[in-house]
Amino acid sequence: MISKGHKKHTTLQRPAFGNFGRNEWAIVGAPCTTIKLLADQVISTLSSKYKCAYVDTTHNDDMVIPPGRLSSGAAFEYTDQVNHQQLNYAKPFNPFRLREIFSSTDLVLINGNHQPAKAQVIIIYNNKKASLQKRIAQLTNVQMIILADADDVFDFIKETIPDWDKLPIYKLDETEKIISFFETQMQNAKPVLKGLVLAGGKSERMGFDKGAVSWHGKEQRYYMADMLKSVCDEVFISCRADQQSEIDNQYSSIADTFTGLGPFGAILSAFREKPDSAWLVVACDLPLVDENTLKYLTDNRNISSVATAYQSTFDDFPEPLITIWEPKSYPVLLSFLAQGYSCPRKVLINTDVFLLNAPNPDDLTNVNTPEELDKIKHALHKKVTVE
Asked: Could you count the other beta carbons within 10 Å of the beta carbon of residue 8?
């Protein structure tokens, strides 16, 4: 017998997805050709900054035989079309699969005649009044109204949306204003940037806790956390569960819940706590990193990429432990883990990331051994003398 107070499932923070993505709008109330044209105009303008997607349902009612090898019983068929890739599935998608597929997108526009969405844009056509009225239950979060051949909003819309007159209302031919609405929405949806200092390693090669070394007059984990506060909304120190009681209570911390995975597990643990935030992750064994290095990274952040990282001058690979990981990287990291990989650098190498050249490449030097420690002491002394 299960008691009434018993919780069968662990309570998790869920990403703010709709049916497809975090930022999605169903366009309703217009003929499909009008919706497609409007979607084309918005996507063609915003696709240079954001990854855009479009959702619709085909009108080819005479298509009763699945295409290609699906008709032979294949579960799916992948085709390299040279200028694009095509993947046909035999089975319908449920919401969980759809959110997984669309997780890399920034903006999703949807033909609301066929599919609902988290937010809606209404187009008012006089001859579509009855059709729109049938979809009144789908109008749960209307954010813009567009007048096509009508001069006013339908009465049933006014009754359904009490604050309808506070919404932006444009004519269908006011394309620039309509596109500007979506651009503003995307700017406002920019994920908040949190800071994460990686201080949960056992420092076995060094022989002592690198996070506790006092390079700059205080323990490195606290020095780095203080520095991150200048560019992040909130800062946390990542640590093992057995270390958490040692962290100064003036600093927030996140204990690893993906254990035994090193930095990879620390990043996943942070996303588990706050899946809709972006995370500026910095290892505590980078004693030469300064505010200029962090600010250059945040100033040049590309929110449409999975991550923004510095490119190493040593091997030309991305530096994973001074990187901004966007919310869309969370499912990517989990998918790599499911395939047996727990290397953050491998994720960056094999996904869409935005790479920068560090203003001062020496600042990315890390310390893992006593020999490297001596070199860094000399470099720090030289840096302080020059300053």
From this structure: 5
Alpha-carbon gap, residue 348 to 355, rounded angstroms:
10
The pLDDT, as a whole number, for residue 97 is 94
Q: Rounded CA gap, 170 and 49, in Å?
A: 24
Strand-pairing partners, residue 87, are: 78
Residue 29 has pLDDT above 50, yes or no: yes
Identify whether the C-beta of residue 309 lies closer than 8 Å to the C-beta of residue 280.
no
* Long-range contact pairs involving 331-337 (C-beta distance under 8 Å, separation at least 24): 331/100, 331/103, 332/103, 332/104, 332/306, 333/264, 333/267, 333/268, 333/271, 334/268, 337/258, 337/261, 337/264, 337/268
Q: Which helix (H) or strand (E) holds 193?
A: strand 193-198
**What whole-number distance in Å separates Cα of residue 254 and Cα of residue 110?**
38
Structure-block tokens of residue 68: 């290609």
Q: Let me know if the fold of 24-56+70-188 is the same as that of 193-386.
A: no
Predicted local confidence at residue 64, as pLDDT: 72
Mean pLDDT confidence for 7-36: 92
CB 38 within 8 A of CB 116: no
* DSSP symbols for 62-84: T--S-SGGGGGT-SEEEEE-SSS
Q: Check residue 205 and give its pLDDT.
A: 42
Identify the CATH assignment for 193-386 out of 3.30.70.100, 3.90.550.10, 3.40.190.10, 3.40.50.620. 3.90.550.10
CA distance 81 to 290: 46
- Distance, in Å, from the CA atom of 21 to the CA atom of 119, rounded to the nearest integer, reads 11
For the ranges 70-74, 267-271, 365-369, which has the lowest average pLDDT? 365-369
Where exactly are the structural domains of the chain? 24-56+70-188, 193-386
| Residue among 306, 319, 219, 311 at smallest CA distance from 271 | 306
Percent of the chain with pLDDT over 90: 76
Antiparallel, parallel or unpaired: β 318-325 and 278-283: antiparallel
The closest alpha carbon to 23, from 238, 190, 230, 150, belongs to 190
Let me know: does 25 contact 46? Beta carbons within 8 Å: no
The DSSP result for 197-235, as a single string, is EE-----TTTSS-GGG-BSSSSBHHHHHHHHHTTT-SEE
- Which pTM value belongs to this model? 0.90
CA distances from 65 to 54, 61, 78, 87 (A): 24, 11, 18, 16
